[in-house]
Amino acid sequence: MTIRLDMRRVVNRAASVLGDSAGAVGGFLQRQLGLDGGFRGRDGRSDLYYTVFGLEASLSLGVELPLDLVNSYLDGFGTGESLDLVHLASLIRCRANLADLGARDVAAGHMTKYRSRDGGFNMIHGAEQGSAYGSFLALGAWQDLQIDCPDARTLAGSIASLHRPDGGFANEASMTASATPATAAAVSVLHYLKEPVPESAVRWLGARVHPLGGLEVIAFPEGQGTPDLLSTATALHALALVGVPPGDARDRHLDYLDSLWNPQGGFRGHWADEVVDCEYTYYGLLALGTLSE
């Protein structure tokens, strides 16, 4: 399995859990598709990053889309030569979802621009050290291109350098505090590289569970933190990859997801968020599918 296919498998499982609400999600996703074939971001304009989430969720749930129009939108980005790492990985993932890999070697060449000197990947060209998020995006892109990540051992070493004394992982080498999304990304990269996952990272993620469900982004003092959907979905999925179930927190997590559900057919990112978008709807499906395993 790859990062993308594992996530699609889990999102697909969410459809059966949604029941009658699956139609509402499908309708919401269809309404987010712009006239140009891209999915809308939070500002209402088509965005390649949000297109990943809208396209992948739609395909996983069997939502009908004008795929010729989506392909035309993607064609506008060429081989991704002018894109940053986030959007380059987004373009590659969208193409993989449509089984249209195109010029794989050219896209792979663009990927190498974001390799850091320690063997990881970073958003910044020529960075000394990789980031957890950049390495996660890059590994997924290599998988989608069906090309082995060059010198994967150094990628694993870059991730290991982000391990912090508290047990979690920081996103950047300059950061001293661990974060839930970064730890989830690091655990996932190590899992797919078949490298040992530190037990301390698993414990650190488990300690981020909020009393009302969901996971907090960092280690807040007791009673001071709030959960968010990105942290919740990525952490639950990463823990599932390494065989750690939600245990007795499952029902609380489901209640938390329910608190973020919007009747228009999507999910908000956190309790204070008033916008429902493709990204958080995808993460809501990912979390729901993980909890149904």
Number of strands: 4
What is the rounded distance between the termini?
A: 17 Å
> Roughly how many Å is the radius of gyration?
18 Å
Main β-sheet: number of strands, strand sense, barrel status?
2 strands, antiparallel
Tally of helical segments: 13
Strand content: under 5%
**Mean pLDDT rating:** 96
What's the helix-strand series? HHHHHHHHHHEEHHEEH
Helix percent reads: 40-55%
Short description:
This protein is mainly α and 293 residues long. Helix content is 52%, strand content 3%. It is built from 13 helices and four strands.
Describe the protein's architecture and organization.
There is one protein chain. The strands form 2 sheets. The protein has a two-stranded antiparallel ribbon. A two-stranded antiparallel sheet has the order 3-4. The protein has helices spanning 3-18, 22-31, 48-61, 67-75, 85-97, 104-111, 132-144, 152-160, 180-192, 199-206, 229-241, 250-260, 278-291, and strands spanning 215-216, 227-228, 261-262, 266-267. It contains 13 helices and 4 strands. Helix 3 (48-61) runs parallel beside helix 5 (85-97) and helix 12 runs antiparallel to helix 13. The chain starts with a helix and ends with a helix. The chain is mainly alpha-helical. Strand 3 (261-262) and strand 4 form a beta hairpin.
